[in-house]
């Protein structure tokens, strides 16, 4: 069996006229990426997803294409939390209009809910959650809780 | 403006200075009127008589005045006022605030809304820096802090004093030995963090295996409510009990500490041995808190 080339990939996902292509997503994280940018079963965007595509760079990867929507910087940085090697292409008229890498933000303000029920950020107080992004997870700056897995599940 | 919220915010020079300062105070080198124009607000949202008395005593020794809420039930807090608002209001009455609160991170929040320094006197299962500072202070009265072997025994999962002390000891390149019942181990995230910071953390099943190689034994309470029934609690707690027999042939300079109150983790007969330092430790709360108050109010 031969490695599927670009032609095979082309069969799985067709090109889009305008929108965003999120490439080099950590294999298996495509659906979480959709969740992060708020795409659910009820949204109207035309979305194509390919998972476990062979890639020279990472072995296996996922790809997501969203028609008629350009991601903003904040959405891109959130994606970086679960797929740090992602590359994002903004497509206009079938051409790559802009190509962007992502950076893991240093702090997350109001992005993630602290899983600790005893944390003051879950009480009725005029503050948002604040997490420090560490190499091995997210650190709550109020209660010191460390989120090491299922970051998407904790997003607000 | 200096707050004292978490041991994690303090670096070694700060802690060393504070300990030196407390040593001076303990040898009567302090001005008994140095805080005579200052007012300290004690905001205790849950009872902790000793911590509160210890701060009040510290403030009184320096000539200062303490004010506090009579009862939480009768105050605006019971009417649903946020902690943020309470702190903003109390900031207008006092020169510093000592806060005890059931929610973790409450003291951090308070420091963001206060216009005066905040000292954390325990927030939920979170931080309690004055306890850790007085633990370190007590150790250095007998031993240099650097590179010693410290054993921690008991409930290391929920025992916050053990967490902050372990973290602080990592500043002094100590070796940490942990001995705890199944399910009450030091959280793995914390062990990982200590190891990342270059601290050796060694887990032991039985205290007998390591007691003769320790310089400090830090005992914490195992709470009845962590167990499904009394039988399994008594079973576990009796096998973690510190007895005179266990302390035979230990290092002559070993010190045994306990944040108190104890139930029966330490046999009363141990109190008479030279190793027992838990009552000194508790007394040390006053000079350490005096040093903390002078630090934030200077
Ligand atoms: Zn938290």
Explain the layout of strands and helices.
The complex is a heterodimer of chains A (about 160) and B (about 300).
Chain A (H helix, E strand, L loop, with lengths): L5 H7 L6 E8 L3 H7 L10 E9 L3 E9 L5 H10 L4 E6 L2 E7 L5 E3 L20 E5 L2 E4 L5 E2 L9
Antiparallel strand pairs in A: 1-3, 1-4, 2-3, 4-5, 6-7, 7-8, 8-9
Chain B lengths: L11 H15 L12 E6 L4 H13 L3 E4 L14 H9 L4 E6 L4 H8 L4 E6 L5 H14 L6 E5 L6 H10 L5 E5 L8 H9 L4 E4 L11 E4 L10 H10 L15 E3 L20 H6 L1 H13 L1
Parallel strand pairs in B: 1-2, 1-3, 3-4, 5-6, 5-8, 6-7, 8-9
The structure holds zinc ion (ZN).
Structural write-up:
- The complex is a heterodimer of chains A (156) and B (298).
- Chain A is 15% helix and 34% strand.
- Chain A has 156 residues and is of the alpha+beta class.
- Chain A folds into two domains: 15-100, Aspartate carbamoyltransferase regulatory subunit, N-terminal domain (Alpha-Beta Plaits, 2-Layer Sandwich); 107-154, Roll (SH3 type barrels), CATH 2.30.30.
- In chain A, the strands form two sheets. Chain A has a five-stranded antiparallel β-sheet with strand order 2-3-1-4-5, with helices on one face. Chain A has a four-stranded antiparallel β-sheet with strand order 6-7-8-9, with no helix packed on it.
- In chain A, strand 7 and strand 8 form a beta hairpin.
- The radius of gyration of chain A is 17 Å and the shape is elongated.
- Chain A starts with 5 loop residues before the first helix and ends in a 9-residue tail after the last strand.
- The relative contact order of chain A is 0.16.
- The model of chain A has no long low-confidence stretch (mean pLDDT 86).
- Chain B is α/β, with parallel strands linked by helices and 298 residues long.
- Chain B folds into two domains: 7-127 and 285-297, Aspartate/ornithine carbamoyltransferase (Rossmann fold, 3-Layer(aba) Sandwich), CATH 3.40.50; 129-282, Rossmann fold (3-Layer(aba) Sandwich), CATH 3.40.50.1370.
- Chain B has ten helices and nine strands.
- Chain B has helices at residues 12-26, 49-61, 83-91, 106-113, 129-142, 160-169, 188-196, 230-239, 278-283, 285-297, and strands at 39-44, 65-68, 96-101, 118-123, 149-153, 175-179, 201-204, 216-219, 255-257.
- In chain B, the strands form two sheets. In chain B, strands 7-6-5-8-9 form a five-stranded parallel β-sheet.
- Chain B is globular.
- The chains are: A alpha+beta (156), B alpha/beta (298).
- At the A-B interface, loops of A face helix 4 of B.
- Residues 114, 116, 119, 121, 140, 142-143, 145 of chain A line the site of zinc ion.
């Amino acid at each position: 069996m031969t490695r599927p080339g670009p032609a095979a990939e082309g069969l799985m996902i067709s090109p889009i006229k305008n929108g965003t292509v999120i490439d080099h997503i950590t294999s298996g994280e495509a659906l979480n990426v959709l969740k992060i940018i708020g795409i659910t079963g009820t949204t109207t965007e035309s979305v194509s997803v390919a998972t476990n595509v062979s890639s020279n760079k990472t072995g296996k990867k996922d790809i997501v294409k969203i028609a008629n929507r350009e991601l903003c910087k904040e959405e891109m940085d959130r994606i970086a939390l679960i797929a740090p090697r992602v590359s994002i292409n903004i497509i206009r008229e079938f051409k790559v209009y802009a190509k962007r890498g992502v950076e893991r933000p240093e702090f997350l303000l109001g992005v993630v809910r602290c899983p600790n029920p005893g944390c003051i950020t879950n009480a009725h107080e005029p503050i948002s959650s604040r997490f420090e992004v560490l190499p091995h997870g997210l650190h709550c700056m109020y209660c010191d809780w460390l989120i090491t897995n299922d970051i998407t599940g904790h997003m607000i | 403006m200096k707050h004292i919220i978490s041991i994690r915010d303090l670096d070694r020079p700060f802690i060393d200075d504070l300990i030196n300062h407390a040593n001076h105070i303990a040898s009567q080198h302090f001005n008994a009127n140095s805080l005579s124009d200052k007012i300290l607000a004690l905001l205790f949202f849950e009872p902790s008589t000793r911590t509160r008395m210890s701060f009040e005593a510290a403030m009184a020794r320096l000539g200062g005045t303490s004010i506090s809420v009579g009862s939480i039930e009768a105050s605006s807090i019971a009417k649903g006022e946020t902690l943020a608002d309470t702190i903003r209001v109390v900031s207008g009455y006092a020169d510093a605030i000592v806060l005890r609160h059931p929610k973790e991170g409450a003291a951090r929040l308070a420091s963001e809304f206060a216009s005066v320094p905040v000292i954390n006197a325990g927030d939920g299962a979170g931080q309690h820096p004055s306890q850790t500072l007085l633990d370190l202070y007590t150790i250095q009265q007998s031993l240099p802090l650097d590179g010693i072997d410290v054993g921690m025994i008991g409930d290391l999962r929920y025992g916050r004093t053990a967490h902050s002390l372990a973290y602080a000891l990592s500043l002094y390149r100590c070796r940490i030995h942990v001995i705890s019942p199944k399910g009450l181990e030091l959280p793995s995230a914390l062990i990982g963090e200590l190891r990342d910071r270059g601290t050796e953390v060694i887990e032991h099943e039985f205290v007998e295996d390591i007691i003769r190689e320790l310089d400090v034994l830090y005992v914490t309470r195992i709470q009845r409510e962590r167990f499904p029934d009394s039988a399994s609690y008594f079973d576990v707690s009796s096998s973690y009990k510190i007895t005179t027999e266990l302390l035979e042939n230990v290092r002559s300079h070993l010190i045994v500490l306990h944040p108190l109150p104890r139930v029966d983790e330490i046999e009363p007969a141990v109190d008479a041995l030279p190793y027992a330092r838990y009552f000194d430790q508790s007394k040390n709360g006053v000079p350490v808190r005096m040093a903390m108050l002078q630090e934030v109010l200077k």
